[in-house]
Amino acid sequence: MTPQILAIAMAAVLLIVVIVLLRSYVLPEKYAVIWLAASVVAIVLSAWPGLLDTIAIFFGISQPINLLFVGAFFVLFLLLMQLTLEVAKTRDELRKTVQKLALELEKRQSLDD
Amino acid sequence: MRVLVAIPALNEADAIGEVLAALSAVHPLADTVVVDDGSRDDTGRIARTAGAHVLSHAINLGVGAAMGTAFKYAAANRYDAVIQFDGDGQHRPGHIAELIAATAHADIVIGSRYAPGGDAFKSSAARRGVHHLIARVVSLYARTRITDASSGFRIAGPRALAVFAEHYPVEWLGDTVESIVLATRQGLTVAEIPVGMNERAGGVPSQSVFRSIGYTGRIMFILVLASFRSVPPRLRELRRRTAGESVA
């Protein structure tokens, strides 16, 4: 088995996992775009390694694999950044919700008294 | 038939008072619920003073989630049908009786701006084009001709209400369109009646060309997803429950 087939198989598994998660309503639409795009890019790059070489030559990078590392690092950095922002927003919304709930519960209890 | 009018509202303090006043001429406000979706203004207080029920979201969750709350409220309070009505004065209360009458023939009835027999809806050509394109695609899913899938003026009858109380799409801007696809996949029927709509009372809808393209792309993506998505888990449970009842 050549490494290329292995790479294509792994990318295909990634795509299938994304589709299964989408299908069963586990993965929301909002995040679907980025994961579908990532799996498609992975499949294209593994099925067509020459593409990576061509882009590397265009940017003047002597080792094409370095382009892959730098590119992947950058994309992962952006993804992490986005997730951090999402967590911060979710925490903020949770705080607001719990505070409002506390006020409502107090209102109801003082009515009961 | 007990009908609930549900008004999802976000920062509609300027318009909601007039909207409720106009609505009260044809529908009791005691059977009206305003879902205040995290407004920063007095929307909720004004609606409550006017005599409507108010459900307040602690944070802004979007129109889809607001309607989801309204459907749960309707199911809990034993209503038979829910009418979605706008809080900014776009929809005309005069059409409500027609919507209710039309539920005799369909589970969901949409008040369409573009159906034959309606007033010509004044809007930009780009906006109309987008609406027509979306309606075309949704018609394919619904296997019936729909001219205005993105209209937020609609009624959900008893069978649709049972489905939507369990699951209503929450995706931003996609709720109107996706709910039709979801409903038709549950075997519900969709019909339209022609309606006229007013210009928005407050604020101008910002529909630049780029926004239209983004909006269309987003809805198309949601529709493509809907084509290979299975039934939401909670709806599968509902179907199993109702099937069990009919056997017993």
Topology:
The complex is a heterodimer of chains A (113) and B (248).
Chain A: H1 3-23, H2 29-47, H3 49-59, H4 64-112
Helix pairs in contact in A: 1-2, 2-3, 3-4
Chain B: E1 3-9, H1 13-24, E2 32-37, H2 43-50, E3 53-57, H3 63-76, E4 81-84, H4 96-102, E5 108-112, H5 125-142, E6 154-156, H6 158-166, H7 175-185, E7 190-194, H8 209-228, H9 233-247
Parallel strand pairs in B: 1-2, 1-4, 2-3, 5-7
Antiparallel strand pairs in B: 4-6, 5-6
The CA-CA distance between the termini of chain B, in Å, is 26 Å
Gyration radius of chain A (Cα, Å) is 23 Å
Total E-strand runs of chain B: 7
- Topology of chain B as a string of helices (H) and strands (E): EHEHEHEHEHEHHEHH
Protein model, in words:
The complex is a heterodimer of chains A (113) and B (248). Chain A is an all-alpha fold and 113 residues long. Chain A has 4 helices and no strands. The radius of gyration of chain A is 23 Å and the shape is elongated. Chain B is built from 9 helices and 7 strands. In chain B, helix 5 (125-142) runs parallel beside helix 7. Chain B is an alpha/beta fold and 248 residues long. Chain B has helices at 13-24, 43-50, 63-76, 96-102, 125-142, 158-166, 175-185, 209-228, 233-247, and strands spanning 3-9, 32-37, 53-57, 81-84, 108-112, 154-156, 190-194. Chain B is globular. In chain B, helix 2 links the parallel strand 2 (32-37) and strand 3. The chains are: A mainly alpha (113), B alpha/beta (248). Chains A and B meet through helix 1, helix 2 and helix 4 of A and helix 8 of B.
